[in-house]
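Q: Given only this backbone (303 positions), what sequence would you predict?
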């Protein structure tokens, strides 16, 4: 048993080293969105992390690997209706090699989503003023959630100096637990949201990006700027299905006494859930309801 555990550990370490070398883990130079590369073989999905790099073959787990299933069509129908890892069978008590490698690749993407920073290029492109919370780095952000709910002293100063006061709606883009979600969704959802608010005659303040932020940071920003409504577009905790899912949290006139039930939330904003452009239009409608009712969260639901 000890020898088996040692061998399994060695295999995992070697695979992780190879993934890191090829840019699949955080810290590598390749930070670009992988390109899909077509191949004649249907056995794997090939991606390229950066120019000039060797393609990485990620196993395709879309098929049914159960030998002689009682109802093959039923298994395939279930697989088409969910991204869950079903119908992959096993090798003894362990997963098959291809499904295990796909697990490692998806796990590496989830780790990248947490530990990589949102690119400066995206922030500049979207015209976002960047500030940071009291969490100095990712390690402190993960260990001290409370620090992610308050701005650093420099961040408070920038917000007060650079941001429009008393906006009807203050938009925040927060990295949260997935920088990948911000990179993937903000280019579509932010323009749709801002254009929708403008068309509805609702005045939006200066859009802000908050690094190492948690949901609760919207309370402090809302109080500093005396915003009527604050909306945070924040990266969700990544999983093995997707690392690109984002949520939107909205609150009406936050105070020191704000509780989580005061927030209205829409989740699963990504290409496999609610598409970001569609979500932007939906959020405009919800913000209009919040402004009309002068409340959010459970109080809004009871209206």
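A: Predicted residues:
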């Amino acid at each position: 048993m000890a020898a088996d555990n040692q061998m399994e550990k060695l295999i995992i370490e070697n695979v992780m080293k190879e993934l890191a070398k090829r840019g699949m883990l955080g810290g590598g130079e390749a930070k670009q969105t992988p390109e899909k590369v077509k191949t004649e073989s249907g056995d794997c999905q090939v991606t390229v992390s950066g120019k000039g790099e060797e393609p990485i073959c990620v196993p395709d787990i879309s098929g049914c690997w159960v030998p002689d299933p009682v109802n093959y069509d039923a298994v395939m129908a279930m697989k088409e209706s969910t991204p869950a890892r079903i119908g992959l069978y096993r090798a003894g008590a362990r997963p098959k090699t291809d499904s295990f490698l796909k697990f490692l690749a998806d796990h590496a993407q989830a780790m990248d989503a947490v530990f990589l920073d949102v690119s400066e290029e995206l922030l500049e492109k979207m015209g976002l003023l960047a500030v940071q919370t009291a969490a100095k780095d990712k390690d402190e952000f993960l260990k001290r959630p409370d620090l992610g709910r308050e701005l650093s002293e420099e961040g408070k100063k920038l917000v007060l100096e650079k941001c429009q006061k008393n906006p009807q709606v203050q938009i925040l883009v927060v990295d949260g637990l997935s920088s990948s979600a911000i990179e993937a969704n903000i280019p579509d959802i932010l323009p749709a949201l801002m254009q929708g608010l403008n068309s509805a005659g609702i005045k939006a303040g200066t859009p802000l990006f908050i690094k190492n932020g948690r949901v609760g940071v919207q309370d402090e920003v809302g109080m500093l700027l005396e915003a009527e409504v604050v909306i945070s577009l924040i990266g969700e905790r990544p999983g093995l299905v997707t690392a690109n899912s984002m949520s939107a949290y909205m609150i009406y006139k936050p105070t020191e006494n704000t509780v989580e039930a005061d927030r209205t939330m829409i989740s699963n904003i990504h290409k496999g859930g609610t598409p970001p452009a569609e979500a932007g239009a939906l959020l405009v409608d919800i913000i209009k309801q919040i402004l009309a009712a002068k409340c959010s969260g459970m109080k809004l639901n009871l209206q």
